[in-house]
Amino acid sequence: MAHNPVNHPARPIYRAIGGLTGLYLVIFGVLGLVETSGSELFAQDQTITVLGQGTNLGHSALAAVLGVLVLIGTGIGRNVDATLNKWIGYLLMVVSLAGLAVIRTDANYLNYTIPGVVVTMLLGLVLLMAGMYGRVGSEDEARAWRDGRLVL
N or C: which end of the chain has fewer CB within 10 A? Predict the structure, then answer.
């Protein structure tokens, strides 16, 4: 049995938080696409920053696509948003850790900076939280989850 709650009372708030996170990713991605237009896809120019984070065309496009996916999931609702938020949260955390590992090397293809790593990790954690607490289920599933919690 999963340890994540079903029909959490604050589920609409978590869904809104996930949507706002997706909106941030879209805004960052679009601003980054505008700022880096005309440059190479994976340019490693540390002077290009958007909202305080280093970026390039590839990083901006990735952020915009992930943000649109989160917004689509939020619009659909039900468990689609919870699943998308959870997996995109995991992806953002892995990408941020990989960015931290290669930040001062030639393998820094997404032009990460320390603020970019921190923000990406926080966005991943927020989406993961929204995904964990945003699940919807029937009353029987919610009752089974509550009963399973009460057993010591």
Answer: C
